[in-house]
Amino acid sequence: MTTEYLAHLYREIQEGKQPVVTQQQLESHLWEAANILRGSIDSSDYKIYIFGMLFLKRMSDVFLEEAARIYAETGDVRQALHDPAAHQFFLPPDALWGGLQQYRAQVGKQLNLIFSAIEKANLDKLEGVLETIDFDVKSLTDDTLTQLILHFDKLTLGNSNLEKPDILGDAYEYLVAQFADDAGKKGGEYYTPHKVVQLLVELLNPEAGMMISDPTCGSGGMLIECAKHVEHRGGQARRLTLHGQEKNMNTWAICKLNLLLHGLLDHQIELGDTIRAPKLVEADRLKQYDLVIANPPFSLKNWGLEAAKEDPYGRFVYGLPSNSYGDYAFVQHMVASLNPHGKLAVVMPNGVLFRGGQEQPIRKELLEADLFEAVIALPPNLFFGTGIPASILVLSKHKPAARREKVLLIQATNGFQARKNQNFLREEDLQNIVGAYQQFQDLPGYCKVASLDEIRRQDYNLNISRYVDSGGQSGRVDLEQAILNLRRLEAEREEATAAVYSYLKELGLS
Fold first, then answer.
1. Region label for 106, one of left (φ > 0), alpha (ψ between -120 and 50) or beta (otherwise)
2. Predicted confidence pLDDT, tens digits, the chain (510 residues)
3. In angstroms, what CA-CA distances link 435 with 380, 396, 410, 439?
4. Helix (H) or strand (E) holding 293
5. Which of 135, 182, 314, 321 has the fewest CB within 10 Å, making it most exposed?
């Protein structure tokens, strides 16, 4: 790396001469990278290699940008290229992207050495992440890896080259969705459809300064959507505390890369089994969060019953589910992770609403503790790799006074766009659900505010069809109008109340 190159790069950046990469270009480029790998490895494994290469190219280009600026400001080439403290991510000279093209034999082995060197130079951010990616496997030939390197060499991904700051994160999410579709059943293990994630986040409404956890975080989409929600409302995402835990090592590494590509550097993502060995702990207790959000594996068998019987964190105070259904184990872990004002939103199979056996008494105790705030039955076939009907449970440790000893039950099963392989939650469907949740009032054929006494009379069965008669109608237009009418009536009520208080004040009665 010459000083002339650094000076030239700095001039081009200052003069705006660097090539600009658009969202569409990057998404197309990443998909072509998948085509290079197609036939060599299973499609469910594409993501780890493509995102590893994307991350390496991005780090190298940003490093050189930073080096060019430092050299222009200080004239000190040693500081520009060899001072780790001067860079967000430090790359040793032999690990810069420009050196990759010299390799034509044992390319996988060389890439492993480069990734290992980068990880060791950035242990505070990357410990255990890059070394998870093993390029030195028989199915990845030297020719395939060389094609992949040459393909990524066509793009420059420094900060000055990006059409918008979050282009890399958005492209990542696009490709994760494509991989989930391509990977079929395996896709559901690490990816939740974006609209479902948005819905969970809208229900929780995170704010800057909150601590948020996803105990089964997959590739990190829910934590990232929380950050986006805060930013879209004028808050600062960097003021969020984002924590998660993931059992699968490759998915854990992808989650870390995902957060870093989105610029969310301050996070804690732990590797391990959330039920058997929770890692988000301090001293002898679980860390406590304002919000917990998750989509755990549905009805997990052999979830860790024996370990739960001796749980040192006191998570299962409402009862132990059978070894065949781990759903309420995850729910109780999430409840135990909430602070006294905390709230959670979790995707669960519909069976948790009505199954008997060991689940009925757990459901009863959670209801009697007045933790359930809302249950939302989702449309069918929204998730990759499973047709199991699902619902969202919203539980809160500090329900507003008007919601205490009540549960809102929303029958949202008819609001969706049908597709050949998988149904899709539309924006209007999402807003209908969020609007009904915020209003927390009866809407005939769509939702019902059930008192705890009503639920007791149903023997704590939360099957929504017992409370809401949708009559087989979608009610899409009527629902939207009903929510508008409710909001108008509430505004009129507030105006009338204000007028009454004004009159009373004039009469000296207030």
1. left
2. 678 999 999 999 998 888 999 999 999 999 999 999 988 888 778 888 998 999 999 999 999 999 999 999 999 999 999 999 999 999 999 999 999 988 889 999 999 999 999 999 999 999 999 999 999 999 999 999 999 999 999 999 999 999 887 788 778 778 777 776 555 444 445 468 889 999 999 999 999 999 999 999 988 999 999 999 999 999 998 899 999 999 999 889 989 988 888 888 889 999 999 999 999 999 889 999 999 999 999 999 999 999 999 999 999 999 999 999 999 999 999 999 999 999 999 999 999 999 999 999 999 999 999 999 999 999 988 886 667 889 999 999 999 999 999 999 999 999 988 887 778 899 999 999 999 999 999 999 999 999 999 999 999 999 999 999 876 544 444 555 566 556 556 655 665 665 555 556 556 665
3. 21, 18, 11, 6
4. strand 289-294
5. 314
Which residue type sits at 190?
Y
Give the length of the chain.
Answer: 510
Nearest CA among 391, 329, 402, 405 for reference residue 362: 329
Name the DSSP class of 138. T
Report residue 71 as tokens.
């050299």
Please tell me the distance from the alpha carbon of residue 324 to that of residue 358, in angstroms, as a whole number.
10
C-alpha radius of gyration, the chain, whole number: 26
d(CA 432, CA 445): 13
Contacts of 348 (CB under 8 A, 6+ apart): 296, 298, 327, 331, 390, 391, 392, 393
Helix (H), strand (E), coil (C) string for 159-223: HHHECCCCHHHHHHHHHHHHHHHHHHHHHHHCCCCHHHHHHHHHHHCCCCCCEEEECCCCCCHHH
Of 136, 120, 65, the C-alpha closest to 97 is: 65
State how far the Cα of 132 lies from the Cα of 137, in Å rounded to an integer.
13
Q: What is the dihedral of CA 273, 277, 280, 286, to 10 degrees?
A: 130
Residues whose CB is less than 8 angstroms from the CB of residue 67 and which lie 6 or more positions away in sequence, other chains included: 1, 6, 80, 81, 87
Contact criterion met (CB below 8 Å) for 240 and 230 = yes
What is the C-alpha to C-alpha distance for residues 494 and 488, in angstroms, rounded to an integer?
Answer: 10
Structure tokens at 201: 């986040």
Phi-psi region of 314 (alpha: psi -120 to 50; beta: other; left: phi over 0): left
